[in-house]
């Protein structure tokens, strides 16, 4: 291959894909007389990963739903079922579960989040298992579509280890906050984890601010999308605490897991012999500060929340207005979930948003992510099933998270 008068360090991934998120800057021209071969090498800090964990999560959630429906066995436990031709996989009646799914008793048996069982029965594992269960077909589809769009992109850029930890820990954080504020319901679903991925996207943009172009537009767009999704949480039967808990956990984790080195350090590290280079730090000071502060807040927050939960603390006793974060009562609906309000209006809304993801790198005028990407946001999951409401008039009273 012929050499160029201004040699570079091509990234092998760059030649394969035109939509790379990060590209190291070109290395400076070497001194006159210095050999200038083009060296192809994979830059590990910006390599593209082949996503497999997120698809595996989707398969696992789907398999768990099938197993849950098998255990539910509607024909044996109910007078009437939907889709009788499915046999024991048929769904509970609409008046009990409008999402085409099992009964709340089955979900509880399979590992749904039940605060009383966590505290009195020492079943802390429910804080994790509830994220792998779903209230119905509609619930499962909404979650998995969101996970597919958001998770695949993150795993491709950051790898399965970091994204996997981000997903699982965010789900735990969402379950923890939900359990502290909503203690009279059982909870299932993965939207706490999905909101964690969304929070990680925001903190990743902030901590890697200097290596992005169009960052202001991307930042504003993310804030608007997040605000819209959280605003949905003030509707009745929408548990916004899992959304908020998962988002905050993912936001802090993003500063820890999704930090990237600066271009100058990468170019210096991978420059061929003979190229002049100056000493460049791997990370900027603000990145290191955010990393330390976020890690401390994350450890303290999760530890404190878990201790409070295991001691039976109801967070509403210490925050008289916090319940408005999950539901704002109006003349059209009530936010009370006690049996006396079994006839409260049920809302099951799934929102689609087109997210014009304008994030792109700016290296020699190259903006690989200028194309728009449709993004299904996880604003409706998981669903909290009001067990008391179900016992009253055999009614499936749910809250979307």
Automatic annotation (TrEMBL):
This is RHOMBOID-like protein. It is found in: Membrane. The lineage of its organism: Eukaryota, Viridiplantae, Streptophyta, Embryophyta, Tracheophyta. Signal peptide: none annotated. It catalyses: Cleaves type-1 transmembrane domains using a catalytic dyad composed of serine and histidine that are contributed by different transmembrane domains. Residues 122-258 form the Peptidase S54 rhomboid domain. Residues 1-28 are annotated as: Disordered. The chain crosses the membrane at residues 49-70, 132-152, 164-182, 188-209, 216-235, 241-259, 288-310. The gene is LOC111311951. Serine protease involved in intramembrane proteolysis.
């Amino acid at each position: 291959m012929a050499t160029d008068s201004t040699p570079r360090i091509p990234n092998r991934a760059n030649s394969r894909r035109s939509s790379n998120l990060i590209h190291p800057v070109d290395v400076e021209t070497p001194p006159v007389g210095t050999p200038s071969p083009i060296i192809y090498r994979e830059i590990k800090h910006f390599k593209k990963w082949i996503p497999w964990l997120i698809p595996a999560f989707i398969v696992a959630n789907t398999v768990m739903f099938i197993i849950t429906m098998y255990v539910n066995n509607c024909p044996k436990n109910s007078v009437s079922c939907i889709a009788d031709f499915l046999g024991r996989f048929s769904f509970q009646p609409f008046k009990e579960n409008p999402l085409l799914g099992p009964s709340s008793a089955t979900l509880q048996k399979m590992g749904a989040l039940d605060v009383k069982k966590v505290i009195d029965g020492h079943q802390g594992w429910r804080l994790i298992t509830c994220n792998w269960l779903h209230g119905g077909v509609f619930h499962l589809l909404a979650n998995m579509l969101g996970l597919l769009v958001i998770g695949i992109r993150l795993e491709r850029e950051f790898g399965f280890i970091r994204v996997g930890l981000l997903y699982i820990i965010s789900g735990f954080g969402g379950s923890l906050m939900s359990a502290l504020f909503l203690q009279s319901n059982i909870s299932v679903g993965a939207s706490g984890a999905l909101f964690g991925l969304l929070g990680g996207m925001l903190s990743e943009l902030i901590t890697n601010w200097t290596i992005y172009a169009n960052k202001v537009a991307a930042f504003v767009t993310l804030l608007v999308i997040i605000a819209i999704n959280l605003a949905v949480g003030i509707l009745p039967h929408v548990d916004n605490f899992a959304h908020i808990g998962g988002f905050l956990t993912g936001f802090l984790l993003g500063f820890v897991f999704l930090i990237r080195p600066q271009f100058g350090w990468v170019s210096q590290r991978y420059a061929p012999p003979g190229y002049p280079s100056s000493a460049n730090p791997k990370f900027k000071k603000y990145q290191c500060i955010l990393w330390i502060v976020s890690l401390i807040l994350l450890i303290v927050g999760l530890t404190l929340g878990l201790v409070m939960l295991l001691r039976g603390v109801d967070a509403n006793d210490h925050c008289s207005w916090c319940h408005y974060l999950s539901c704002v009562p109006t003349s059209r609906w009530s936010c009370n979930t006690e049996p006396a309000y079994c006839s409260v209006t049920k809302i099951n809304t799934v929102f689609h948003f087109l997210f014009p993801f304008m994030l792109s790198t700016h290296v020699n005028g190259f903006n690989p992510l200028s194309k728009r990407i449709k993004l299904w946001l996880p604003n409706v999951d998981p669903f909290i099933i009001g067990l008391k409401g179900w016992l009253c008039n055999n009614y499936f009273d749910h809250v979307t998270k």
